[in-house]
Amino acid sequence: MRKRGSLLRTVGRAAVISGTATAVSGRVARRQHRNFAAEQAAQAGGHTATAAGPEGAGENDLVASLERLAALHTAGELSDGEFRSAKARVLAH
Question: CA 82, CA 78: separation in Å to the nearest integer?
Fold first, then answer.
């Protein structure tokens, strides 16, 4: 009986470790996807601003890009660091 209990504990631990690893890898994948989407939005905003032509059109695109990033940050899709980094890229263009 003692060996059976030990085996069940080992199997239980393995299941918990596996579940934790799956949850962490899923979170990492979602965060990478959000980062990629934020970078794409920032790059699209920067490129649109330079190709816009008339003065002031670039400002509207810049504001729209910053508003999109702020919305992602407010929704919890971007961490504080990710938001600051993406905002710096948008402002640098």
Answer: 6
Residue with token string 């509207």: 60
The single-letter DSSP state of residue 60 is H
- pTM of the shown model: 0.40
Q: Which amino acid is at 57?
A: A
CA geometry: angle 8, 9, 13, nearest 5 deg: 120
Encoded tokens for 2: 């003692």
Using a CB cutoff of 8 Å and minimum separation of 24, what contacts does 79-86 make?
A: 82/34, 82/35, 82/38, 86/38, 86/39, 86/41, 86/42
> How many whole angstroms separate alpha carbon 20 and alpha carbon 17?
5
Q: How far is CA 63 from CA 1, 6, 8, 60, 73, in A?
A: 68, 61, 58, 5, 15
Write the pLDDT tens digit of every residue in 40-78.
877 776 554 444 444 455 667 888 888 888 888 888 888
